[in-house]
Specification:
- 4 copies of one chain form a homotetramer.
- By secondary structure, chain A is of the alpha/beta class.
- Chain A has helices at about 40-50, 75-90, 100-110, 120-130, 145-155, 185-190, 200-205, 210-220, 245-265; strands at about 15, 20, 25-30, 55, 90-95, 110-115, 135-140, 165, 195-200, 225-230.
- In chain A, about 35% of the residues lie in helices and about 15% in strands.
- In chain A, strands 9-8-7-6-5-4-3-10 form an 8-stranded parallel sheet. A two-stranded antiparallel ribbon of chain A has the order 1-2.
- In chain A, strand 7 (about 135-140), helix 5 and strand 8 form a beta-alpha-beta unit.
- The radius of gyration of chain A is 17 Å and the shape is globular.
- The interface of C and D includes residues 69, 98, 121 and 141 of C.
Chain lengths: ~270, ~270, ~270, ~270
């Protein structure tokens, strides 16, 4: 019943400005949901780097359910991300939300994120398939793994081989968490494709109290990394504050993550490294 | 409980080249999943018009889960739709899949369809919000009614007041049907907004044996119309043949639909009318 | 992949003390969620009978999610139901929640209800399979149609051929309604088995504003009846008041139902009949 | 937001014939889906004990979706379990499926299992609430965590304080696995109650290839143990063979589990211990 997935059978690693996803390192991506200000992104970049994050995240173009919600700083946000890369040395991931924005986002980002709501936006998939930057493709909240792999195939068959998949929680009837992290997606994707896969416990649970447990679970299950929302002052964040960690909680998470990553035979950057 | 939906509180009707959706008439939209050939679309247009359909559907740009599936005829398909409009007199609805295609599709279509996979493609919503053609917005198979109404708000707040909503089935655990038609969505949408709402029993059930029952249910539940896939030879269709009706089955459905539509105090075009 | 369903292939009708379910009549079952008092059940029985209901419902043993919620009047409730049958002439349906209660409930009820939470309580299914009263088996809120039919098979293969199935809404991610009524279940069940099937729009939607639309939809889709919660004073009901209709709303629903039932070629009891 | 859960706020441990669940030990429960023969259960008990399992599982009364599937050996199965306890020294868990069977199962089992399909079988919950054996309550595949905690409250409020909860996968739209293990349930339950919680990766994934990853994830997420299906010859098992591990795969899983359990500060029985 499944159509061809010609391009994704070989095990691959993806290089993001010198950081390898899918190899021996367990890669932690961290940063705020949205770039809100120069101070917010620079201090966060410095804090997460010191705790061992390897890539900085931050949204400049925010796809929001309501047209009346904060939509992000746009290009100004991209410039701030680039400045944070300079000061921290961390490569940067940010979301691109439409084909027309691909060129602009490529000028600033080291890896392009395609968000869950756009997982089947085929025009966008084809557009990011034609650039020379790697892509992080998030699973739609009600998309099957099969559909995720076929969406990846749109990018790969357009010529871009640098695809990282991200499990970020699916929709279920359970309401104690915002979404239901499908932890089995990690071994299923590993069995069915050669692409690196990371887990987003922040969006996946929607609540900071549950982020650490799911982050540890992801490492144990064999994920190649995680993406975590961190904010200088989560209670004052302009979006998703309830699921963001403060700097101290992120540092504590990294301390708990290290022995688990070692236990499954992977490496993780030490605290304080650069 | 939710954020603003300023633009959609008043009961509205939408005019599609002289056909009013949301008024006393129960409007049947019919046609093939994809425009495949001149003969296919012209004969289908003629057949569905004679049975009482008021608008012709047909896909020229097809968003497909796999990049290796048939993607539609593109502009050639749009031209064939326009020809079918000339010969049948029926206005035409067809899907637009990215912002760059909006101008092109507007030159041929009488109402633009935004498909389920693009319901939260905000760049596309804003683009169709700026044109002077009405829009049919399909509910995402993973989207709540709340999110559907907020997606509509993107179009309405961009200046386009001609929005028709379409319930086309949501994803559930049940696998006897392709999706689960959420029949309650009809009264919920009617209560929470003033926008017209139609039901798509073809995609909703994914199987022609169940289309008629769900079509009748939609009429009884208070929907303003239905959209049904009809093909000259369903078993030979290039996409979605299993859920398409042949001409005779569509005519039989219309015969069963008439008394139900009358029973709820609506009107429906008689067979053979033009 | 499906195991045997030997017993349920023939189209059957079920006789409930003279009321036939699954034949030409569209049978309306109505009454309160729970039997609360003598006055409540007698006045409700009289009111629903006058509007055209054919069977009286009322819970005496209530399966409740919390052990601290009202659990029903028990045998006292059964006695009140029997008295209401005498005064109204309506047969009575009530739920049985464990094998030990089957004999007791059989002494009072005309048709035994197995609730959604007990759909796979096989000891109970076998127990009701051994009695000479018909059974109404409600679909579990997260059970497939396949599993519903196999649960029915437990009853049928135990020797009881009087089984009526009831679609009462399944669990989905949508939260505008309490459950999602799977209207397609009606034609799917009709195709795959010969058993009568009714719809419960009260539990299915969880909100009285949506009950009428879904009731009409059920009739149009080909259901053999509906089961509706009616209470003398819904806002004061001990359980499920928000989804219960008052007498006037029930009468109005019946008036809207009659032309739809006629439109699909079925009959419905006139108002005021006995 | 919910009703009372008076009895379950304190952190508790549950003693199963000398094995403590909910304390520092990470407890592995292993054994076949069903007790099939004397040889099968005795050899499995010996094998899993040697690899480090602390409790033996095995079904004697099997609730099956179809009445025509293998229903278990009944009391004969219970006797074989008791014999396996003698030879291996492992306490025994087995399912009880109706109130009438509680006394019988109590004579043989060290901890009673209430299965997912019976999570809201309140008569059964009350019956096991009145005995002096601990109970493992499995989450219904259609039940929220809230409902699971309230079901536990039925047992606790009946007087039995020895309740262990088990996450065993919920139903979602994803079909690559049989169910979707809700890994977040572990921290959510830990936050909302004091009861021990274990994970069943065998039923949760439905496929042996994914059992190890989810087992490791459960340990990392903070679960108090796991329950795993092990069979001498999975491809010849009478039920659930596809999700069962052979002895060698189980031993390998235990070897991978040890460092992860240590990494989160828990202990696990060494291989070869008794």
């Amino acid at each position: 019943m499944t159509t061809g997935r010609e391009a994704i059978q070989k095990r691959t690693t993806v290089d993001v400005r010198g950081v390898t996803i899918g190899g021996d390192d367990f890669v932690v991506i961290a940063g705020p949901c949205a770039v809100e200000s120069r101070d917010e992104i620079l201090t966060t970049a410095d804090a997460v780097r010191r705790s061992g994050a390897r890539i900085l995240r931050g949204g400049a173009f925010k796809p929001r359910t309501s047209p009346y919600s904060f939509q992000g700083l746009g290009e100004e946000g991209l410039k701030l991300l680039a400045e944070a890369r300079e000061t921290s040395g961390l490569p940067v991931v940010t979301e691109v939300t439409s084909p027309e924005l691909v060129d602009l986002v490529c000028r600033y980002a080291d890896i392009l994120q395609v968000g869950a709501r756009n997982m089947q936006n085929y025009a966008l998939l084809e557009a990011v398939g034609k650039v020379r930057k790697p892509v992080m493709l998030k699973r739609g909240m009600m998309s099957t793994i099969e559909e995720l792999l076929l969406a990846a195939e749109y990018i790969l068959s357009s010529g871009n081989t640098g695809v990282v998949l991200c499990e970020r929680g699916i929709r279920s009837f359970e309401k104690a968490t915002r979404y239901t992290v499908d932890i089995s997606a990690v071994p299923v994707i590993k069995k069915q494709s050669g692409l690196p896969v990371i887990v987003d416990p922040s969006h996946g649970t929607g609540h900071r109290d549950y982020v650490a447990s799911v982050a540890l679970a992801a490492a144990a299950a064999g994920a190649d990394g995680i993406m975590v929302e961190v904010h200088p002052s989560p209670d004052n964040a302009m979006s998703d504050g309830i699921q963001s960690l403060c700097f101290a909680d992120f540092a504590a998470l990294m301390d708990r993550l290290r022995p688990v990553v070692s236990a499954v035979g992977r490496r993780i950057a030490p605290a304080g490294s650069r």
